[in-house]
Amino acid sequence: MATYSISLNMEFIRSADRDFSAGVAVAAELGYTHVEPMVHTGWELLSEVGYFHSFSMEEDPLLMKEICDRNGISVSSISGHSPLMKPEAAVPRLTRAILFADALGAPFVNTDEMLKPDWMSDEDAHEAMKYSLTKAAMVAARHKVHICVEPHGVYTKTSEGLLKIVDLVSSPWIGVNWDTGNAYLAGAEDPYEALERVRDRVLHVHAKDISYSHSEAERGKVTGTPVGCACGEGVVDWERVLKILDPLDREITLSVECGTIEEARRSLPFLREVIGDRMAKPKEREAA
Length: 288
Fold this sequence. Notes:
There is one protein chain. The chain is of the alpha/beta class. It is about 40% helix and about 15% strand. It has one domain (about 5-280): TIM Barrel. A nine-stranded parallel beta sheet has the order 5-2-1-11-10-9-8-7-6. Helix 3 crosses helix 4 and helix 4 (about 85-105) runs parallel beside helix 5 (about 120-145). The radius of gyration is 18 Å and the shape is globular. The mean pLDDT is about 95.
């Protein structure tokens, strides 16, 4: 039987124009014990001046740990989204994200296929993704960090397309990060039936709800969205999602992916109530 833990994707602080340190402090104030940071390569201007939450992988990963430790926060996973069809970018980005995750004790790095270039054929796209995932999977195996591919693009909008990418490389270190909001918005298939088809490969979940107005405006027109509304205030049937995942014999992290601080505040008590006695027991934190 699955157990569940709750984390907070750092996208919640983006609308407030705050940096990573401020975002972690706010997450702790809201009652979260885990976060999912976004990382980037190089030096990103808005992050450097304190207006954006993404964390540069040019920094020491233990600096991120120090910031989290000060606030009683652990890192549940890394948002290391990389363009799998662009190996020259995806391989170094995923590799460094895996190293970061290992240093932080986070077992998952989340990604998706990102955008497909107009000039690239489907066959070439999958060959490129296979190369990216092959290189990344070797690093993942050494560091015992899972690469989780989520539904967010032209191929992963269906369960068949998602599993095809996950199965490009035979590795126990590649699985699925199920994004409840993206799967719903794509409108390519019933999102709950799709979750049942990929369930055995699900290692991590982006808990993203979609408002009714957002659904009416974009369902079937997009393959994903950066953030959703507060969990429990949209179209996602959370009881049904957990019922599908319950047979899994592992802990599943539900990483809240919403757009504002207030939405993050309202999401936490809702998910706690839905999870009930299925909540995973807290792990002891390592000494700072």
